[in-house]
Design brief:
The protein is an alpha/beta fold. Helix content is 57%, strand content 7%. Strand 3, helix 6 and strand 4 form a beta-alpha-beta unit.
Length: 184
């Protein structure tokens, strides 16, 4: 069974990070998880930046390509969660799904006392991507190369993707990616 990671809205919001995470999931490096509530929050936030139609299209494609990612039946667990109130639904989804980890920028919202009883790790997106590179470097690099090869406007190479990931809060991944693609 694949490593399962609940992707919090904040990790799905930056376009290049979202694309990177979902392409790695599609390549089989991990199983992505979310809830309708997480995708609805993502859609609302994206609509402010991209417009409502594009935001609906993005979340619709996520649902289409990862039909088993959506977790239901977590609502009764929310009140039992002891993490930050605004993110209790996120932990409840992770617990219901028996997720291995939550990938989020909001580490402080998930203190160890709240997650440890459920054996759910809380991982910053940068650390998560670094783990992906460590576990399957060739697969990750091939996947990221296909990712940038698919970009038409603007075109992009792996160095530009590294810069984009650095800008959204993944400097370690950016540095490791630069090392991996720089000829020795």
């Amino acid at each position: 069974m694949a490593f399962s990671a609940l992707l919090d809205t904040c990790a799905l919001y930056p376009a290049y990070l979202r694309d990177t995470l979902l392409r790695l999931a599609n390549a089989g490096t991990f199983r992505p998880l979310w809830s309708t509530g997480i995708l609805n929050e993502l859609q609302r936030n994206l609509a402010e930046r991209t417009g409502p139609e594009r935001a609906r299209r993005i979340t619709g494609l996520m649902r289409q390509h990862f039909p088993d990612a959506n977790i239901t039946g977590y609502e009764p667990l929310i009140t039992a969660m002891t993490n930050d109130a605004k993110d209790r639904h996120v932990l409840a989804v992770a617990v219901r799904a028996d997720a291995d980890a939550i990938v989020t920028f909001n580490l402080d919202d998930f203190p160890e006392h709240a997650t440890e009883p459920f054996q759910v790790d809380v991982i910053h997106p940068d650390d998560f991507l670094l783990n992906q590179i460590d576990l399957a470097p060739r697969l990750v690099l091939r996947t990221l190369q296909r990712q940038v090869d698919g970009y038409r406007e603007p075109t992009m190479d792996l160095f530009a993707l590294a810069a984009a990931l650095d800008r959204v809060g993944c400097p370690g991944t950016a540095a490791e990616l630069r090392l991996q693609i720089t000829p020795a």
